[in-house]
Amino acid sequence: MDTNGKVALVTGAGRRVGRSLALALGDAGCRVAVHYGKSEKDAQETAALIHSMGSEAITVQADLEDPAQVESLAVAVEEQLGSIDILVNNASIFEKIELRDLSVEDWDRHFAINVRAPFLLAKAMQSQRSSDSPGKIISLNDWRTARPTRFAYGVTKTALSGLTRSLALCMAPNVQVTEVSLGAILPPADIPLDRPRGEIQIDLGPADRMGTLNEVADVMMMLIKNDFITGETINVDGGRHIK
User: What is the predicted pLDDT for the residue at 189?
Assistant: First the structure.
């Protein structure tokens, strides 16, 4: 895919990994829709950085838990930039709730944001486009989904992998659908980014280091430019999945 002038929507693009992906798309000449839930200032900063690269960017707010707002998000992008060529499902919730403490509301919230929103956006993307238009959908996943302390998160991320494979079949041959499963890229949001490596008590895997935002963005861009990879999961985790 030639990315120049293509319309890209990145969910949760105000901060952290989402911002880096939005910036990479802007740097590649895409017209970027920067979605945010509550981080309006961060989203505006992301858009400003894309503008400084010479690319177009807009910010669009939507609560991904609300299906009506998800559908309105897709409509807003089409009205302001055009039909969506590239969809990056970055936004998700990662709440620490064990099975015994998990409510139906917790369960539904995780499914709404982590699975239903990507499904609705893919459906909207398909309806906006002609059947022979090329497109890409890339979802951010997790190398490790089985987490007893984050039960609903793990189940929904497993479901997201199933959605990726099903969409890859349903939207073939012109839209490729893939996912990137991350390991340790950034410390959790409540830990300072400059915290010394030795204070982060996790097994970093064979690579013995945390990944970088650029490494994640590079993989995303590779998948966007490659028209033969679909239905695939690329692990960007320093090899943690093989230990």
Answer: 60
Report the distance separating Cα 212 and Cα 17, nearest Å: 9
Residue 97 exposed, middle or buried by CB count within 10 Å (0-12, 13-18, 19+): middle
pTM: 0.94
CA distances from 162 to 25, 126, 146, 179 (A): 26, 18, 15, 10
Q: How far apart are the first and last CA of the chain?
A: 35
Question: What domains does the chain contain, in order, with CATH numbers?
Answer: 7-242 (3.40.50.720)
Per-residue model confidence (pLDDT) at position 59: 98
Q: Treating both helix axes as pointing N-terminal to C-terminal, what angle do 16-27 and 213-225 enclose, rounded to 10 degrees? A: 50
CA atoms within 13 A on the CB side of 171: 29
Q: Which residues in the chain come in under a pLDDT of 50? A: 193
Instruction: Copy the structure tokens of residue 177.
Output: 């659908």
